[in-house]
Amino acid sequence: MSAKTQNSHATKTNGPRRKMSLRATRIDLPPDVRMAMIALLNERLAESTDYVLSIKQAHWNVKGREFIALHEMLDEMFAEAVEYADLIAERAVILGGQARGTLQSAAEGTTLSPFPLEATSVSDLLTALAVSAGKLANLVRAAADQAAKEDDLGTADLFTEVSRGLDKQLWYLEAHLS
Question: Which partner for 125 in 34, 58, 90, 113 could form a disulfide, CB atoms 3.0-4.6 Å apart?
Answer without folding.
Answer: 58
